[in-house]
Amino acid sequence: QLYRDARECLTLLSQRLGSQKFFFGDSPASLDAFVFSRLAPLLKAKLPNGKLQQHLKSLQNLCNYCTSILSLYFPWDGGEMHPPAPPSGLRAEEDPHKRRNQLLSVLVGLVAMVGYAFLSGIISIQRGGAGPAGHQPIALEEEEEEE
Fold it and tell me: Sign of torsion, CA 34 36 37 43?
């Protein structure tokens, strides 16, 4: 029943699109974004059961619709759904600065969190008095807890 309903939905979308470039004429609308977000994965992904994918591939205008949007808005790869390759043929795993960038991002995050903690008062630095060694003044919170 579910596959039958999905096939019917695809057929109705195909009939509504007809020979137009987009559902409401020559420029895309929010409906086009929504429909594309459902059709493109169905068209491009490898699925364990390909019944619905085969039906979509039989609806040539919907296939052309997806290919047109892919090439128009994702031109770096001619309609294939992959991001552009890193420059000079390096893959992400082979990037010589990957480890440095990871370390820097962790350090920046750590500094930001510690800075926030100081500015919001979660952490504060108190200087010890000139009292005897080993004796530190009791913070206000510690006095309240003792009572």
Answer: positive
